[in-house]
Fold this sequence. Notes:
This protein has helices spanning 3-11, 48-57, 76-83, and strands spanning 20-24, 38-41, 61-63, 71-74. By secondary structure, the protein is α+β, with helices and mostly antiparallel strands. It has a single domain, classed as Arc Repressor Mutant, subunit A. The protein starts with a helix and ends with a helix. The mean pLDDT is 86.
Amino acid sequence: MATSEMKHDIRSQGTKTCREFFVSSNKAFTINTRNPAFMYYENEHEDLLSKLRVLENEGFIIDITPSNAPKYQFTEQFIDLLNDDK
């Protein structure tokens, strides 16, 4: 997954405190949620689920899936890395 999209998402006005995201196979499937959350689509990112497993194994995201829609939470450590412009 391109972290540039994640960087853009967490830096956008109104979503700077958003820490959760869903994964869907494509934009045809929508998920309604009470709290703000990002959406990432498998058909837009090659090997998305594999890349998310790497981020999870490294402790950068946490799987918080409530049902059948994969849902993750960014860790503050990962947010700091995404916000670091070095």
